[in-house]
Design goal:
Strand 5, helix 9 and strand 6 form a beta-alpha-beta unit. The chain is 53% helix and 9% strand. By secondary structure, the protein is of the alpha+beta class. It is globular, with a radius of gyration of 21 Å. The protein contains 17 helices and seven strands. It has a five-stranded mixed beta sheet with strand order 3-4-7-5-6, covered by helices on one side.
Length: 336
Amino acid sequence: MSDQTMAAGFASAFLDYAVAEGAPRAGLLAAAELSEDALGDQDTRIPVSAYQALIAAGIDAVGDTSLLLRHVLETRLETMSIVGQIVHASSSFPHSLGQLNRYARLMADVPIPGRQDRFGIAREGGAVWLIDHRPCDGSWMATEASFARFISEFRRSAPEHPFEQALEVTYAPPPHANRYPDLFRVPVTFRAARNALRINPVWLNEAFDGGKEYVFGVFTRHADGLLEELATQDTVRAAVETRMLADLHEGTLSMDHIARDLGMSRQTLYRRLKDEGITFAQVHDDLRRRMAMDYLSARKVSVGEAAYLLGFSEASAFVRAFQRWTGTSPTAWLAD
């Protein structure tokens, strides 16, 4: 969603990495419409769309679609987010995963269907899988980066017990799939039914280094303050959009259902949206419009695929809606 935000520390770290790989710093900042000041504090919020533009510009400049993946595997989470400090001060992997889910929003806004945690653990026979519940949109960048972050942290901190064992992803092989054996070092199944990393079961019981209770408390108090600050910036519209996004592909969305998920009655939701000067139907329509722009501008999906993802029963219905939004067809808009 175009108004989602994330921590500036991730953009700053990627920028430094891309520049070291030969990309022009000023050019990347200009492409992302970011300034050096905007990246000065790792906790500052920037648009997710700006980070995506930064990555696209870096890949274009370097000529390597694996740039983000290599960046994640070669960097440390604690240098770009307080969440990294919390994870490393946790007592075990299950404990750290709980903290990661708790503070995930401090890294980036990522709507998850059914109000689930971002990451979960599933036991299947003798195998243990780390599952990413982020909605599947057919793209590879965010998914490969999220699993690479887990792998990176364990490779550096605990090489004696390799963390990763196999990887399943919903997307098709990316342009740099030939580098996966060297970068991920595990068997990878593309076009799978889920995004999941099979992990070494030892990490469900292995304790992390002890003696970090004090610093853990310091970090979590700071993180709780950041979460509270984000909450004060929330609007009912933003909460509705976040909930809508999880089921956007279903087309008709129930106001009663979303109100219940938000812990209020339909009448209360109607009143609070009215106080913000908008209706439920307008929120839905505008969210579809913005997501259509995001999908098509990224050129990762076809017009038909965008229609499905946005919940239109037919591509022709999507085309009519797009013409209403923009005054032109999706094909003509892309040509411009």
